[in-house]
Amino acid sequence: MSRFFITTPIYYVNDVPHLGHAYTMVSADALARWHRLNGEEVFFLTGTDEHGLKIAQAAAENDMSPKEWTDRLSPRFQTAWKRLNISYDDFIRTTEPRHYETVQSFLTSVYENGYIYKDLYRGLYCVSCEAYYQESELAGGMCPIHNRPVTVMEEENYFFRLSAFTDRLLEWYERFPEAVRPSSKRNEALGFIRQGLQDISITRTSIDWGVPVPWDSEHVFYVWYDALINYLTAIDYGRDKARFERWWPNVHHVIGKDIIRFHCVWWPAMCMAAGIDPPANVFVHGWLLVGGEKMAKSAGNKVDPLELVDDFGLDAVRYYLLRDTNFGSDGDFTYEALTARYNADLANNLGNLLQRVTTVVANKLGGRAPRPVADSPLAGIASHALNRAQDSWNKFAPQDALEAVWLLIHETNARLEEVAPWKLEPGPELENVLGDALESLRLVCIAAFPVMPDAASAVWSRIGLDGSPKDQLAPASFHWGRYQSQKKIEKGEPLFPRRK
Ligand code: MSP
Questions:
Q1: Is 146 a catalytic residue?
Q2: For the chain, what are the domain ranges?
Q3: Which residue of 179, 277, 292, 300 is most buried, as measured by CB atoms within 10 A?
């Protein structure tokens, strides 16, 4: 059985999740679900990133210890993801003992392999921030936050010899051109590498909220250095060799474009330094913008995904997130666009199709569902749409997969309008057109399931099928003509009532 290991970034717990985070999660969830439908063994990992200055400061502002703060905030992510129906298999917290153990054993290997050394770090330091600044980040020579003079500080730090990996990384990307997708993002990663890489400071002595350096108790690891290693903690690196080798290096990291440098430059180099293969794939999505700006706590333009779910329904929000933005490009969130998508694609296209078919079957055929026709004109259209959806899912292009599925819905509606079964008397013509439409709906349920698991299951049972689209095996279940209802079909309330 083939395997699919998919990860999301782990989220900083300095705030509650917003729609931008939800976008990453729904993308990864749909991909995980698609691969499960394909009969693959899937391991879907997410979690929270709990160390570093940012968290320590958020805790202090709330009069709590960092541990108390993260214990309070991390479950909010789990609750939000449950409500968004994110089907993760493991949730990692970087404050867990299993993670400390993995970080220490991984970085000890890097140290023993000669890629970590101690040196003086010299930088411009703001004592109020307890952080270093680049010259370019200062505002008129002062700390941009406190407007106070910065001091030149020297601190002993451990450094990672990133500069040793420039050529090896370039060779790696040459050999595996698909390692970062889409290709525009691969070029961005290559751009960073070609500029030349400098060694990076990977420990701190000024804060103690982090994983201790095992060979020098004065130091803790810098937050990014511990965070990236979560991907290995969850598959038992250094603890269970067989399990680690089952999942690594065929991993698929889904990330936002702001963290390309960490995932596509630092992380593969760290893996090389520890003597393991770099991750096989990184899939980079764009940002969700609001009013042209990245949605973020600091920008004050956050949208709460759970409020949208209360308003529009879960699967409508999931659908909108994946349908409206091409994976890889930036997307603009607007309430108007969400409403327009909802009305056009869900209330009108899908909702109408279901409503029309079930109503006519209930009214004219006493709820007894007819079978599809083997050589129906819709069969070719369906096969084309499903091939395209399958291809798109395999290429991490959810927007295109959904477009293909909605084309089938559109064509099925067009056929109903042409034949107008509501005007026909019971007989073969009526039965054929309804049987075909039911078969289209069956196929739509399977192909849209990764994005809309609840709605697809609801349609599935409304058209009289047992079980769930979840248990269908793609692509075998995509063959035209398998629809056969075991139950009487009744017309129900609209699944997606039209919105004003
Ligand atoms: N903790 C690091 C990741 C460590 S992974 C080893 C981090 N956390 S984050 O909470 O700031 O961001 C997590 C993810 O959310 C990133 O992929 C980021 O791109 C994504 N997004 C945050 N805001 C976003 C938007 N407005 N739009 C889309 N994705 C966004 O970075």
A1: yes
A2: 3-307, 339-478
A3: 179
- Orientation angle between helical segments 428-448 and 453-462, nearest 10 degrees: 160
Q: Is 226 in the pocket of ligand 1 (CB under 6 A)?
A: no
Cα–Cα distance, 408 to 444 (Å, whole number):
8
Nearest to 111 by CA among 265, 238, 235, 275: 275
Q: Quote the ligand 1 centre to 49 CA distance (angstroms).
A: 11
Helix or strand or coil: residue 199? coil
CATH of 3-307 given 3.90.550.10, 3.10.580.10, 3.40.50.620, 3.40.190.150: 3.40.50.620
Q: Return the H-helix or E-strand segment holding 95.
A: none
Q: Is 21 a catalytic residue?
A: yes
CATH no. of 339-478? 1.10.730.10
Neighbouring C-beta atoms of residue 423, cutoff 10 Å = 8
Residue whose Cα lies nearest atom 13 of ligand 1: it is 11
pLDDT of residue 129: 64
Q: What confidence tens digit (pLDDT) does each residue in 306-342 have?
A: 999 999 999 999 999 999 999 999 999 999 999 999 9
Q: Are residues 271 and 277 in contact, defined by beta-carbon separation less than 8 angstroms? A: yes
Q: Is the CB of 295 under 6 A from ligand 1?
A: yes
By alpha-carbon position, which residue is closest to atom 10 of ligand 1? 11
Distance 235 CA to ligand 1 centre (A): 22
Token duo for residue 136: 């370019």
Kindly report whether the global pTM for this prediction surpasses the value 0.85. yes
Active site residue 118: no
**Ligand 1 pocket, residue 20 CB under 6 Å:** yes
Residue nearest to atom 12 of ligand 1 (CA): 11
CB of 49 closer than 6 angstroms to any ligand 1 atom: yes
Name 312's Cβ contacts closer than 8 Å, sequence gap at least 6. Answer: 320, 338, 342, 499
Is residue 227 lining ligand 1, measured as CB closer than 6 Å? yes
Q: What is the identity of the amino acid at 215? A: W
Q: Is the Cβ atom of 472 under 6 angstroms away from ligand 1? A: no
pLDDT digits (tens, 9 = 90+) for 252-306: 999 999 999 999 999 999 999 999 999 999 999 999 999 888 887 777 889 999 9
Show the tokens assigned to 185: 């993002």
pLDDT score of 223 more than 90: no
pLDDT tens across 45-83, in order?
A: 999 999 988 888 889 999 999 999 999 999 999 999 999
Identify the pLDDT of residue 130: 59
Cα(144)–Cα(266) distance, integer angstroms:
27
